[in-house]
């Protein structure tokens, strides 16, 4: 890891101008002659996120060659499909806010939100078909399939509370790593015909995505999601068995593990929730997850070993450091 882990703003520098071009492409791709659709599309544009995924598409393309018009289409496709899944997620979760603004379902109700998500999915598909970007379409469609399967598997396991590490990795590979790998492979594919280079970037995205989700799950135990800096235990409350807890249940004293499962099944209150969090920490679950995140981070770095030196490659390596050290 570098002495000073770079911020996302640092990592965007090699493609800063290209991200501005992407913003225009993304905005244009969502326009509609239907007034309500166009109004909601403009509202979505206002909810500008961190643009991590388009950044990865652009950096992957630059690491493999030159950014071109197909690269912008690939980044736009990824972001449109990602946005569609978020719109649908907000309906499923009955969420009221996203990125500091009211969700579409909170403003226009669920029916409009679901239909808007469907509209975005169709726009993404048509964007690829209109330009015959069949590889992009295949890669992103596979990612959406894997994302849906990962989320459904997580729901299934939250009901049974019988997760193990292999199943957990299958879940996060689907729900998170799949889209990261889609970003990096379509970026590479827009700039090179070299199959080995494409494969390396794809596996980089897969591994960094796994590290990203493990770190995200760790934040529930590290006290960074809470305004007060205290562990929140949201995943435990939602009966999600993530890696720190899975390891703890397997390695901890049998009686304590059974107690933790009883607490989770009936719905943890504040005092009981704190007991589970303390159990995870003293049993080494947090440290184990930190080490596993670093293992996947190292695998991501290794995939870039034979990629030619460039500022884009440096940024992709910097992104790995950012992923495993982020605190929000």
In short:
The protein has helices at 8-12, 16-29, 35-46, 52-64, 69-93, 104-130, 134-160, 165-191, 195-222, 234-237, 243-251, 254-266, 270-282, 285-303, 311-325, and strands spanning 97-98, 101-102. By secondary structure, the protein is mainly α. A two-stranded antiparallel ribbon has the order 1-2.
Q: Which structural category do the helix and sheet elements fall into?
A: mainly alpha
Helix content: over 70%
> Which parts are unreliable, with pLDDT below 50 for 5 consecutive residues or more?
none
Query: Could you tell me the radius of gyration in angstroms?
Result: 20 Å
Question: Strand sequence of the main sheet, in spatial order?
Answer: 1-2
The CATH C-level name is Mainly Alpha
| β-strand amount | under 5%
Q: Would you identify the CATH H-level superfamily?
A: Farnesyl Diphosphate Synthase
CATH architecture: Orthogonal Bundle
């Amino acid at each position: 890891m570098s002495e000073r882990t770079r911020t996302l703003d640092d990592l965007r520098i090699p493609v800063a101008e290209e991200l501005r071009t992407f913003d225009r492409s993304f905005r244009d791709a969502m326009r509609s002659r239907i007034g309500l659709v166009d109004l909601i599309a403009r509202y979505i544009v206002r909810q500008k996120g961190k643009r991590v995924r388009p950044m990865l598409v652009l950096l992957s393309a630059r690491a493999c060659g030159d950014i071109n018009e197909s690269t912008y289409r690939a980044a736009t496709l990824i972001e449109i499909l990602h946005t569609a899944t978020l719109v649908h997620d907000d309906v499923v979760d009955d969420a009221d806010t996203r990125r500091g603004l009211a969700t579409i379902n909170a403003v226009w109700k669920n029916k409009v939100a679901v239909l808007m998500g469907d509209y975005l999915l169709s726009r993404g598909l048509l964007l690829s078909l209109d330009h015959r970007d069949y590889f992009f379409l295949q890669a992103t469609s596979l990612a959406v399939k894997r994302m849906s399967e990962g989320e459904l598997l997580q729901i299934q396991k939250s009901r049974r509370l019988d997760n193990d590490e292999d199943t957990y990795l299958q879940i996060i590979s689907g729900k998170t790593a799949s889209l990261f790998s889609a970003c990096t492979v379509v970026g590479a594919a827009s700039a090179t015909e070299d199959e080995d280079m494409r494969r390396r970037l794809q596996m980089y995205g897969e591994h960094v995505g796994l590290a990203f989700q493990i770190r995200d799950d760790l934040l529930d135990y590290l006290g960074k999601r809470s305004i007060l800096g205290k562990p929140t235990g949201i995943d435990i409350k939602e009966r999600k068995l993530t890696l720190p807890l899975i390891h703890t249940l397997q390695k901890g004293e049998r009686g304590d593990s059974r107690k933790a499962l009883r607490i989770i099944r009936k719905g943890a209150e504040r005092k009981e929730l704190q007991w589970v969090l303390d159990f995870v920490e003293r049993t080494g679950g947090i440290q184990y997850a930190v080490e596993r995140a670093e293992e996947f981070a190292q695998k991501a770095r290794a995939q870039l070993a034979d990629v030619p030196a460039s500022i884009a490659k440096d940024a992709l390596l910097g992104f790995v450091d950012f992923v495993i050290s982020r605190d929000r």
